[in-house]
Each structure stands twice: as structure tokens, then as C-alpha cells.
Design goal:
This protein is an alpha/beta fold. The protein contains 16 helices and 11 strands. The longest helix is centred in the middle third of the chain and has 19 residues, at 176-194.
């Protein structure tokens, strides 16, 4: 080989050597064999190293390491039939009790099915491969592989819900957080009478002062029963504008506190995800206040952005809306994994790695936080 060709090769190797270090700085992938004696956090840290296992490890470390810092306010959105599958009592309730979730946006369906557990009405494991015509004939409801009795669970919950909603304290206009706080008080009493403990998300949120919102009040059996009672003359009306302002006020308060941070934990997608994320555009675009977006973004999803299933809510795309602070993109993780797999693993990791936090009781501070919005929006609102 000529001297000139040797020099070219040497120059190329030097150029490669100078540029490759920043790509090869991650820890080496060579885990020791699993023994069966590992604790879950150790297993996640040591063996969840690549692909969606790697993203789940990143999600667990982001949540436990940064989002649960004392200065961070954590919002959780819940979509998909999680409470019928037991994710409410197994995961969400412990996270609430530990102070790891400060406010919630959920589908109404999750909150309705949560009431089955508060009432101690049984849901059963089953099979997704049953004859639904036969189930209909015998009066059994199926949610994929979750089965329950139509009369003893579905209609019994409806009857209990209507009795509660007919009470005097419900006969006025309110936001969904107040509606669910009042329902949570009854769910806590249902738990006490039936002897079940820590079964209901609504009851746990009531006890912890965690406000629970729904982005579509009419899109669940709770909303259906509210509509039915209105036909009979009930005065309960759920005003979504109250929710829009209260949720934005929560985020503004989180960011205005000294050293404050706002983090979102998006379990699934749908309307709850967007309702939680739109708080920042509400602050910036509508109120006209200086803000940069949420600081921490963590999502479990099986949707894809190219089909519209993630609809403006991958963290990079959300930056263009002001939903996520662009400076914080390293603290944004999307884990493409079934929520029923990811949430229990992350909850166990966080509860093992972090001490409980002091409850923020944001429900009790709604009026105070709205006053801040009124003061600042009056000065900075767009003309």
C-alpha cells in the first residue's frame, strides 16, 4: 500500500476516534445472569436495558428520581379500562397514599367502574374468547377478560349512584373535581360499611385531597345517570369551564412556587392526556402568561403518532404547542407498552425507591390557586 493511502486510513481512524465517544458513553450491556432472588427494582435497573424494557427503566428512573422530588407537582391521566382490571386498587391508590400523585384526569368510565370496588361488588377474571351472545343471554358483562354480573354489579352500581346524586349537596352547578370529591366521600363510606380497604381511587383521592377531573363528563355511566336525573328535575350540572381553569391554575401554581416543577404521568392516551397537557397552552396562549411548558413528561401508550393516535402529544411535537418545555426534553420518556404491564412495575419501583411525600391536598387549595390565575391573567391576558 502506498504511503498516501496509509495516511488516508490513519486520518480516517483518527476522525472516527474523535467522534465516537459521545455515542459510546452508555453503560455496557452485559448483565449478570438472573438468579430468581432479585428484587423488582434491582431487576429493572440491571436487566431492562434495551428496546421498550430500556424505555421502561428510563420511565421508572425519571418518575422516582426527578418527578417525585419535593418541588415537583405530579399530574396523572388515566385512560383505558384500568379500574375494572384492578389497576386502581393495586397501583393508583398506593401512589395517591404515598403522595406520588397530586392531581388526576381520568375517563369517567374508570371512575364509574371504580365504584364497583367501593361497593364491594365482585369483578372476576375470565377469558376474552367467550360467546358474547351467551353472556348477554345469562346477564354477564365482559370487558375483554374481566367479567361481572349485570344485575348484581352494573345495575346495583347505577342504583347506588343515582341515590347519591339525588342528595341535596349535588343539586347545583359544579366542576368535575367537586363532583368526584363528593362521590369520593360516599365511596369512602361504602368502603367503611362493606369492610373493604383501599379499594377505591375516588375514596383514596377524597381522603388525600387529590382533585380528580374528567375531560368528558357525559362520556361515562356517571354522566349518563346525571343526564337521567336531570330529566327527573335534578339540578346537578357539571361545568367543564371550571375544570379548564382549575387544572391550569394547578400547573401555574406548581411553576410559580420557588423552584417549582410540573410533571405529567400519562397512562394511556385519549382525552385525559390532552386535557392534562392543554393546561400549558391555556396558561400561555389564552391567559397570555409567560410560561415554557411542563418540565417532566412520561407516557405509557400503545398508540402511534403517524396514525393520529398520539395526536400532538409525543413530547417533541408537544413542544410546538408549548405543552412541554423544550429545555426539558431529556426528561421526557414515551414507553410503548401496555399500561397494565407498565404501571404496576413503575409503581412498585417508585414505592421501593422513594419515601412517601407530604400530601399537597390540592383540592383544598383550588380557590387560592384560581385567585392567582385571576390576578396574573388580568395583567397578562391576551387582547
Amino acid at each position: 500500500m502506498s504511503k498516501s493511502l496509509k495516511n488516508v486510513g490513519k486520518t480516517r481512524r483518527v476522525a472516527f476516534a474523535k467522534g465516537k465517544g459521545r455515542f459510546l458513553c452508555g453503560s455496557r450491556i452485559l448483565p449478570s445472569p438472573i438468579t430468581g432472588r432479585e428484587r423488582l427494582p434491582e431487576l429493572l435497573d440491571r436487566t431492562f436495558l434495551a428496546y421498550n424494557a430500556g424505555r421502561l427503566q428510563e420511565a421508572c428512573r425519571l418518575f422516582a428520581g426527578k418527578m417525585l422530588a419535593p418541588e415537583a407537582t405530579v399530574g396523572m391521566s388515566l385512560a383505558g379500562a384500568l379500574t375494572p382490571a384492578g389497576l386502581g386498587s393495586s397501583c393508583v391508590v398506593p401512589l395517591i397514599k404515598a403522595g406520588f400523585v397530586d392531581w388526576i384526569v381520568s375517563t369517567g368510565a374508570n371512575l364509574y367502574h371504580d365504584m364497583h370496588h367501593a361497593l364491594d361488588l365482585p369483578l372476576h377474571r375470565g377469558s376474552p374468547f367467550l360467546d358474547d351472545r351467551e353472556l348477554r343471554r345469562v346477564g354477564v358483562i365482559r370487558i375483554y377478560d374481566v367479567l361481572f354480573d349485570a344485575n348484581e354489579v352494573l345495575y346495583a352500581t347505577d342504583a347506588a349512584l343515582r341515590r347519591v346524586l339525588a342528595q341535596p349537596e349535588f343539586q347545583r352547578e359544579m366542576g368535575s373535581a367537586e363532583l368526584h370529591w363528593l362521590l369520593g366521600r360516599y365511596c369512602a363510606e361504602f368502603e367503611r360499611k362493606s369492610g373493604v380497604r383501599d379499594a377505591s381511587v375516588l375514596a383514596a383521592a377524597y381522603r388525600a385531597g387529590v382533585p380528580v377531573y374528567t375531560s368528558s363528563p357525559g362520556d361515562s355511566t356517571i354522566g349518563m345517570n346525571v343526564a337521567f336525573l336531570e330529566l327527573a328535575g335534578a339540578k346537578l350540572k357539571v361545568n367543564p369551564s371550571i375544570d379548564v381553569n382549575e387544572t391550569a391554575a394547578i400547573v401555574l401554581d406548581a411553576k410559580r412556587r420557588r423552584g417549582g416543577r410540573s410533571g405529567v404521568l400519562l397512562v394511556g392516551g385519549g382525552s385525559p392526556k390532552n386535557f392534562m397537557l392543554q393546561t400549558e397552552p391555556q396558561i400561555q396562549e389564552i391567559y397570555g402568561l409567560g410560561e415554557a411548558g411542563h418540565d417532566y413528561f412520561l407516557q405509557f401508550t400503545d398508540a402511534r403518532p403517524d396514525t393520529g393516535g398520539l395526536s400532538g402529544a409525543t413530547p417533541h411535537e408537544a413542544v410546538s404547542w408549548g405543552k412541554v418545555d423544550p429545555r426539558q426534553l431529556p426528561d421526557a420518556v414515551v414507553c410503548y407498552l401496555d399500561s397494565t404491564v407498565a404501571l404496576p412495575l413503575m409503581a412498585a419501583y417508585a414505592l421501593a425507591r422513594r419515601r412517601p411525600r407530604k400530601l399537597r391536598r390540592l383540592y383544598d387549595r383550588r380557590a387560592e390557586m384560581l385567585d392567582r390565575v385571576r390576578r396574573e391573567a388580568k395583567l397578562g391576558g391576551r387582547q
